[in-house]
Write a structure and sequence with these properties.
Endonuclease, Chain A; alpha/beta; polyphosphate kinase like; 3 domains
Length: about 700
């Protein structure tokens, strides 16, 4: 039977539709629903900047469509356009429903036409004192070249008329809305127990007459427009420049990338829209979308809670690890046996404490770490800087091409070099995406191997697992990797770690083949995969082969899933679900039955071609039996979710799992599980 796969771009849009479902879900607290609209919007922006931009490049360069599952890029773009329009309608519906629900909470969103005289006075004063200094309108009739529109910004396209004395005297203007500099949401004075919010956009609309007071116009209309640009970096080949210089130059020029999407207010007058699109030289192949009155909903990710605590998720403070006494040595705990931290259920501070202790411990000789993304004010980087100041040999492998984090990584690389740390910029042609730490101490080596970035901000919302170990089977191979980063022409064999690009794919295929062999012999055979994205065509084909042999396969895929589950004769032994909830499911876990001697791996890698062939990634085996049981328990809870789990199928309709079993809300259950473990710990008990 011919393999049936789901196009990766359409599958990604289906994932973002699951995010949009959270905004429509009445079980989600109201402010969080509005924030999910912001997350959805931000996701869409990145999708167009990266994926749609890539498809447009393929068209420009005459790319062979075979690598796109046989479809031409033009056809995929047409499907994307159709799906995006469908999602835009759902987005508008969700926003309208949320505003109605806010009114029940006595919180009202008002626009410039709904202001009372008293509110109008407040807005006038606020505009004069706060907003006006940041505005720079441009009359388009005065410029030969259309003004440059920045990515990430929103603009007003303004129509100016004199309806009394000269109705044919029409002009157009462009003005950036300064939302990156000013608060997008302004709370107006309360009245009769009611709270009122107006967007910065509408404050500007209300005061258009003041902005253009020197001109002979009496009627003004402003409509929001937005341009999304290609986010890929063009790295020049000047051999005289360092990689740091090239990446810095590429980042500075990213804002000038080619347009890939133009969104406008659907109510914009036809003459104004035609004028702008012509001046921007758009043609029918460009993605031009009618949208709502407001754009850049990503700002709603930080919408403030103006009501009671019931409008937000209840606080879920992370728990202490039951084996860690924060007043004692982490190295002693790890020396006893391996342990894992599961964020955000457990504290990322434990990882920071591990580095902080290493930075001061006189027995520690060196610290090596890979960095892909870190927080803006990173405790991790500060600990490494402190280690270098304390005389430790610090080696940091920084990936300068971590998309959208290049500037931050450039900043930290310079800070580290200032204190004498050795900074390596990865390997030419390969992104270093593995998450590794190696601490060399007088008594041996200690490693931390993670599924996610060493980023305290991410660790509060991303689910990730970090293994701490001094097992020589693992630490010796982590040491090989750091030697490889500094000497990329050396090659090593890895017996335990699965390392891409040279070994991981081959070893994963062998593990699947082992399950196929056992299934054909009538033995138990199953695979459990928890990953973000399942895309690679070779791995998809191998899973279909395993299905035909009778291997039971359970997939927990947050994002893109190109496999089609549940098709008789093709994938009847494959089940796939996705969970979108308050935390972003990010950890990668691979489980193989192995004739009932289960093999567990945690990994930084998804099953995508880029992860398996074009990046340095690591999948790490779990040897400790208690940790295996812990991971197995978390997977069983997640695979049993019937509150936030959606079924992945060929029609991509994101149906919630519904059954007659008691509710299983996996993230809540896991939070309470780790909280109980902490409360029962002798180190963290509240008992006297």
């Amino acid at each position: 039977m011919k393999h049936k796969t789901i196009n990766r771009e359409i599958s990604w849009l289906s994932f973002n539709e699951r995010v949009l479902q959270e905004a429509l879900d009445e079980r989600v607290p109201l402010v969080e629903r509005l924030r999910f609209l912001g997350i959805y919007s931000n996701n869409q922006d990145e999708f167009f900047k990266v994926r749609v931009a890539t498809l447009k490049r393929m068209i420009d360069y005459g790319y062979d469509p075979k690598n796109l599952q046989g479809e031409k890029p033009e056809r995929i773009l047409a499907k994307i356009q159709e799906k995006v329009i469908e999602l835009q309608k759902k987005f508008t519906l969700a926003y309208e429903q949320i505003l109605q629900e806010f009114e029940k909470e006595n919180i009202f969103f008002v626009n410039e036409k709904q202001l009372t005289p008293e509110q109008g006075k407040y807005v006038d004063a606020y505009f004069d004192s706060v907003v006006l200094p940041f505005l720079s309108p441009i009359l388009l009739s005065n410029v030969n070249k259309f003004p440059y529109m920045k990515d990430k910004s929103i603009y007003f396209a303004i129509k100016l008329e004199n309806t009394k004395t000269n109705p044919h005297n029409i002009d157009y203007a462009l003005m950036e809305i300064p939302s990156p500099l000013l608060n997008r949401f302004v709370q107006l004075p309360s009245h009769d127990g009611k709270k009122y919010v107006i967007l910065l956009d509408d404050i500007i609309r209300y005061c258009l007459k003041d902005i253009f007071a020197i001109f002979d116009y009496n009627h003004f209309e402003a409509y929001t427009i937005k341009l999304t640009r290609d986010a890929e970096l063009d790295i020049d080949n000047d051999l005289s420049k360092s990689l740091l210089e090239k990446i810095s130059k590429g980042v500075s020029e990213r804002s000038h990338g080619q347009p890939v999407r133009f969104v406008y207010d659907k109510d914009i007058p036809a003459d104004l829209l035609e004028y702008i699109t012509k001046r921007l030289n758009f043609d029918p192949s460009d993605t031009v979308l009618a949208g709502s009155r407001y754009h850049n909903f990503k700002d709603f990710m930080s919408f403030p809670n103006l009501g009671g605590p019931h409008l937000e998720y209840p606080p879920f403070p992370p728990s202490e690890h039951p084996r860690i006494d924060r007043h004692a040595s982490m190295f002693k705990v790890i020396a006893q046996r391996d342990l894992i931290l599961y964020y955000p259920y457990q504290k990322f501070d434990h990882f920071v404490d591990f580095l902080r202790e290493a930075s001061m411990d006189p027995k520690v000789k060196s610290i090596c770490i890979t960095i892909y993304r870190v927080a803006k004010n990173s405790k991790v980087m500060n600990a490494l800087i402190n280690a270098a100041r304390n005389g430790k040999k610090v080696t940091v492998v920084i990936e300068l091409q971590a998309r959208f984090d290049e500037e931050s990584n450039i900043y930290w690389s310079k800070k580290l070099e200032e204190v004498g740390a050795t900074v390596l910029f990865g390997i030419k042609g390969l992104k270093v995406h593995a998450k590794l730490v190696l601490v060399t101490r007088e008594d041996g080596q200690y490693a931390a191997i993670s599924t996610g970035n060493f980023h305290e901000g991410n660790a509060s919302v991303y689910t990730d697992i970090t293994l701490f170990t001094c097992d020589k089977r693992l630490t010796s191979e982590v040491e090989k990797l750091f030697y490889f980063f500094d000497n990329p022409y050396w090659n090593f064999d890895y017996k335990h770690l699965l390392v891409s690009p040279l070994y991981m794919r081959k070893r994963l295929l062998q593990l699947i083949d082992n399950e196929i062999k056992n299934a054909r012999r009538g033995k138990d055979a199953y695979i459990i995969l928890k990953i973000n994205n399942l895309v690679d065509s070779i791995m998809v084909s191998k899973l279909y082969q395993a299905n035909r042999a009778g291997v039971k396969i359970k997939l927990f895929v947050r994002g893109i899933c190109c496999i089609t589950p549940g098709v008789p004769g093709l994938s009847e032994n494959i089940e796939a679900i996705s969970v979108v909830d308050r935390f972003l499911e990010h950890s990668r876990v691979f489980v193989f039955c192995n004739n009932n001697n289960e093999l567990f791996y945690i990994s930084s890698a998804d099953w995508m071609t880029r992860n398996l062939d074009h990046r340095v990634e690591v999948a790490c085996p779990i040897f400790d039996e208690d940790i295996k049981k812990e991971i197995r328990k978390t997977l069983e809870v997640q695979l049993s979710d019937n509150v936030k789990a959606r079924i992945i199928n060929d029609v991509q309709n994101n149906m919630y799992i519904k059954n007659d079993l008691p509710p299983v809300h996996s993230q809540v259950i896991l939070y309470n599980y780790y909280k109980e473990l902490s409360e029962n710990s002798p180190f963290h008990t509240n008992n006297p």
